[in-house]
Amino acid sequence: MMSDGVVEKLAVAGGGGDVTASWNALYDRFYTRKTVYEMQWLDEGIDLDKYVVACAPYGGPVALVRDTKKVLLVGHDDDELVHPILHIFATSGKRISATDFPFKGLVGMGWTIEEHLVVVLDDGKVHTFDIFGQEVRGRYIELGSECQSDGVAQVVFWDTGFVVRTASSNQLFTITDYEQPIVEKLAHAPLSKPPTSMAVVPPYSTESGSVEVLLATSGGSIGLVDNKSWEDLQVDSGPFNKMVVSPTGALIACFNDEGTLYVFSTDFSKNLSKFVTKSRRPPRDVVWCGEDSVVLYWDTIGALLMVGPYGDFVKYQYDQPLRLVTEVDGVRIVANRQCEYLQRVPESAQDIFKYQSKSPAARLYDAAEAFEARDATADDNMRMIETEDDKVLAIEKCLDAAAREFDYKTQRRLLKAASYGMLFCKSWKSDMFVETCRVLRVLNAVRAADVGILLTYEQYLKLEIEALVDRLVARHHHLLALRVCEYMKMEPQRVLVHWACTKISHARQDVPDQQLLAEITAKLNGQHQISYSEVASAAYASNRVELATKLLDFEPRAADQVPLLIQMKQDERALDKAIDSGDTDLIYLALLYIQRSYDDDRQFFSIIESRPLARSMFVTYCKRHSHNTGLLKSYYYYFKMHTEAAHLACREAYGSRRLADRLKLLNVADAFFTDSRNQFAAQVTKEQIDLLRKQCKVELALRDTPIVDMSVLELIEDNVRHLQMKAANKICSDFKVPETQFLHIQVKTLAECHKWDELARLAASKKKKSPIGWVPFIEACVQEKQMQEATKYILKLPDYADKMNWLCNIASWKEAVELAVKEKDNDALDVIYHRSKNPAVQAMIDRILRSTPQ
Amino acid sequence: MRVLQEDHGGYVPEVRNILFLVRPKMKIMKIIASHIRHMSKNSASTKHFYIYMIPRKTLICEHILETEGVLGRNVHVHEFELDLVPLDDDVISMEMEMCFRECFLEGDNSSLYYIARALMKMQTFFGLFPRISAKGRCAKQVAQSLLRMRKEVSGDALDSIPPEIHQLYLIDRDVDLISPFVTQLTYEGLVDEFWGIKTGVFELPEAIAAKREAAKQANAPKEQQQPIEQKKKVHKMALNGNDSVFVELRDKNFISVPAVLNQKAQAIAETENKRHTMKQVSEISNFIKKLPELQIEKDNLATHIEITAKIREKTTAPEFRKLVHYEQDLLLGAEEKSIQEYVEECINKNEDFQKVLRLLTLLSLVSNGLKPKQWDFFRKEIMQTYGYEAILTLDNMEKVGLLKKHEGKKTFEGIRKGFKLWVDDLDESNPNDIAYVYSGYAPLSVRLIQQAMQPGGWRATEGLINSLPGPMCELTQGQSSEGMSGNVRVVLIFFIGGCTFAEISALRFLNEIVQQSESDDQVTHFVICTTKLVNGRTLLETVCEKVGVLRDL
Hints:
The complex is a heterodimer.
Chain A: H1 17-20, E1 23-26, E2 29-38, E3 51-55, E4 62-66, H2 79-82, E5 85-89, E6 95-100, E7 106-111, E8 117-121, E9 125-129, E10 141-142, H3 145-150, E11 152-158, E12 161-166, E13 172-175, E14 184-185, E15 197-201, E16 212-216, E17 222-225, E18 230-232, E19 240-245, E20 251-256, E21 260-265, E22 271-276, E23 285-289, E24 293-298, E25 303-307, E26 313-317, E27 322-327, E28 330-335, E29 338-344, H4 347-353, H5 360-372, H6 377-384, H7 388-403, H8 408-424, H9 432-447, H10 457-463, H11 465-474, H12 478-487, H13 493-506, H14 513-524, H15 532-541, H16 545-552, H17 558-567, H18 571-581, H19 584-597, H20 601-608, H21 612-624, H22 629-638, H23 642-655, H24 659-675, H25 679-701, H26 712-721, H27 725-734, H28 739-752, H29 756-765, H30 775-783, H31 787-794, H32 800-809, H33 813-823, H34 826-836, H35 839-851
Antiparallel strand pairs in A: 1-2, 2-29, 3-4, 4-5, 5-6, 7-8, 8-9, 9-10, 11-12, 12-13, 13-14, 15-16, 16-17, 17-18, 19-20, 20-21, 21-22, 23-24, 24-25, 25-26, 27-28, 28-29
Helix pairs in contact in A: 4-5, 4-7, 5-6, 5-7, 5-8, 7-8, 7-9, 8-9, 11-12, 11-13, 12-13, 13-14, 13-15, 14-16, 15-16, 17-18, 17-19, 18-19, 19-21, 22-23, 23-24, 24-25, 26-27, 26-28, 28-29, 28-30, 30-31, 32-33, 33-34, 33-35, 34-35
Chain B: E1 17-22, H1 26-41, E2 48-53, H2 59-67, E3 75-79, E4 85-86, E5 91-93, H3 99-106, H4 110-126, E6 131-135, H5 137-152, E7 167-172, H6 178-181, H7 187-194, E8 197-198, E9 201-203, H8 206-219, E10 236-238, H9 244-249, H10 257-277, H11 281-315, H12 318-331, H13 337-348, H14 353-366, H15 372-386, H16 390-400, H17 412-419, H18 444-452, H19 462-466, E11 472-476, E12 488-496, H20 501-516, E13 523-530, H21 536-543
Parallel strand pairs in B: 1-2, 2-3, 5-13, 6-7, 7-12, 12-13
Antiparallel strand pairs in B: 4-5, 6-11, 8-9, 9-10
Helix pairs in contact in B: 1-2, 4-5, 7-11, 8-11, 10-11, 12-14, 13-14, 14-21, 18-20
């Protein structure tokens, strides 16, 4: 039981008596608890005790599902036990939806940052619902066989993921990102008994960047599990019945079986505080209020205990069940009859309202109040704020306090104080006043019970306006969202598109497409960047194909048009839009889908027939994917493209590795070439078949070196190399190789294998005149650096100048000199003399010149 | 880090996360799928696979991953929007080597979409291109895509960015197929012709690499010296504007390279010699500060001298001389018969297949196709020499328009005269025309740009422009360019399907000519953008059909 020493501390009420009435001091700071809503669900008789409850942060919705584990009075007239229902309410108790909940074995529910409700079942199935209780498409997850067979025993959520524990093996699994839901198995925890409690540090708060799970063991210690390992943190003050990680993930509050609350740093290196409650019964809930106080709730005795960092505490008593929600700046208390907010009193409010506060802000506030009351002290108070800086500070404080206030009247008084101060402050230039009023209008509007988003200023700053608009839209408060956009000078497209989608999906079946189109375009026209495809998508989902098609025509982005048109089976339209866009990716996409959607390829071919780009891209696609050659063949057949078919057969022939296949395919190619009246190609193909056959015969019978697949020329070369002149001659005549080419091959090959005698014989056989001239002979010898041999052929050249050139080029000086002497060319001798740079040659020339009469 | 192989080879890395950086090609997706399947099967822990597609994630590739059954929860597909790769201050490449094949052979226009997207990205940085001139089928499509994409982007956001690029020229490679098939005669062009420059990097031939390494060793402090033999790695050298020696050589005709090297060597020696005359301490300390720079310059100079020697070895070889001789004969309109004989001789001698195809392509392009008899003759010769499978490559070349059967009258004669493609009186060392890059032939592609920049632009010579393949279109966007501020004029020239180093050199030269004709405070900058830097060989390689080898009789 609780200590009797608990004494309620009364706030030290100051100037703003009504404001500070709800303040409680906790050590050196004040906390305030305010009732914000009387619950609208009171009429429906909702009793939180009977339900599993999940409350979304940022003043979000409350989901309720009947708790089947609760013992209920027999005979109680309760339809919900037979037909379970998922209730979703705004935090003001205004009903948002009620949908059937046909699932068994609920382990836990939690809200995601995008206000989707994630429901984890004991067989490892995970369903996700939107705020209207509709299952979100594509978000169904199965946690895997281990979870299914062992059963899920426990789940802990954070805003972007969750961790589950299986029942008997205590294995942990986690999903850290709903966008890409990968089930990750964490390290095994060697526990003989189930942990007494479990807490999670989300990945964004850990050093490693991966999720960390803390398990309180029945032995009294705490274990740390992540994706790599298990570690016993050697804590000895357990066993702990409750563990909760603070909002920043830096601290953890642990409640042990002796009724003591400890606060540790999450690495358990520091014990920051210890508070003895002496309650052996564990509290139902433990939550953090900010980073420095912990709130405990015992449902059995209706006690709410708030414990500060230095052992100070405040106790509140309740006669109704309640649930606690940790917010970034406080705790939301959702009870059967009301919704309250418990938070630390903002600094600015303390500054103004604290008893006997002498701060400039307090003086400004007092002055403004006095002025309202037509009291002359107003002026005195104003005068006491001496410096300009203090005046600015005072105005800022009043504005800040107003922004953080729930109560309209107090907001108004603070704003008045600020504006009163502005009259006296010459250096006030900021538009903060206007900004604050704007934000306050938005906040007050969304807090209104009918909308029921209990957002504090702090939360608003963190959530940001775009997300708030998204939330309004998701709740179908389109008009309000639009007003907020206008008011905050934001682009309203998202709101309008969502409105249009909702309009279509909620329209009665008998509302004609034309009417919807008119209503939608009337609103959307003239706006930039409207995603008409999104609206069209919604129309298609509502079976309004005609409307969807018409809407799509307004869409400027082809990348958004085409996939939807494909989905809508508007094949030709999709293909045309894709072609228009010039985006080949879209064309491929359209082509593939269309091709697959027809059983008969001919239908597909007839669609692409008049679209050349589509045709060439289809052919390219088929060519790049060998398994599509069948399709390509039927394409060529359909369009009677025989030459292309022949080339395809060639390509295939040379892609196959067995000779038999190659020959077969070449025959096919031959047939196609013949069909296309391509005489030339048919002829060379026939010859190739012939060549391959011959080569095969020879290779199998005689040779050990492979010759199959050689070209005609290579084959001749091979024969020449082996001096099989007869065979070489035969090939030449078989394949009509011109004599000149044959000669070239012989010269080159004989020179390459240094068969100089054979080369000489070949030259001799051509008598004086070679059909290719002597230069190839010379070049072949020079190539092999056989100048001696080269000289032989140079001397056969008919032209003297050529001879001389060549001889000089290959530095055959002796022969050059001889030739020059023979031709009586003294100029040449002179050139040789200078070019050779060879003393022996020069001496020879000297000798000759001396002996020759000039 | 590994290069993705077609066969996974049983490789299973012991890491949790695996990243694939790939092009969005269907074939690659299949390879990745097989890798993922293999790795997932043979590893105990769950691996995460991150596939980054460059330059964008495509639906079709995702679709293939899906049908291959690997698109699970541990496979993440993202895009890495790397499209424009700056190779130099004035050269940007999209590094899409298959663009030429895809656009001009296969009719797969994916590259055009990427080009439009990349140009669109440029427009978001530098404002709308006020004027776009396009010549060629693909160029026109890119220009039109740009207009369409502008509509898709919200309202008038682009209009408000002050334009910094004054003019965009888009030119299809197939408007001028001749230039890449002529042997480049500039320094950089020859390096590319002989050894290949890949993405601005030149892999030094072994002999030069060894010398460079040895020189560095000699300069290094003793203790850092390592035995050269142990480091037998490939030696790479970046060829770009950071190399001050290269900058002076790159665009020169090779004939004038030795002289430039000489000057450079003298300049360096002079700088070095200054130290002897220095008196002031500050002078000396300044000099010492510059020493490392000077050393790098010296090293580079030594390497370029080596490279020049190697090039000279090749260019003085009779084979090369013959090749250039016949190319020039063709281009200046000499008798074709001797050239045909030369091609035939090359085939007969079983010379490099690419060389033969390159010559034949030039012959076909210049003479507007081969006569039917010739056409059959060459095809037969080629198939008998290089194998029957060449039929597929020849067919591809015919489809692209590199080879064709003779039709109609010769148009090249008119084009050559109209664009003044041959310049006779040329001093390569001190050029006055872009034709110096090919020692006489002025690249048509660059003449086209030159014409566009004349008063009246293409319209002034419409008939001539229309005699080149592909449509022409000229567009204006946004506010008129008249009000454009600043005295810097930026001209963006985009070659779809590749351009050569020689063409870039010619454009730089053209840039100088334009600059000279303008007033002093006006500066014009050309920026050259292309899908890939090519030459005749690499262009042909993408068109060639590769076939498999028989394993089994």
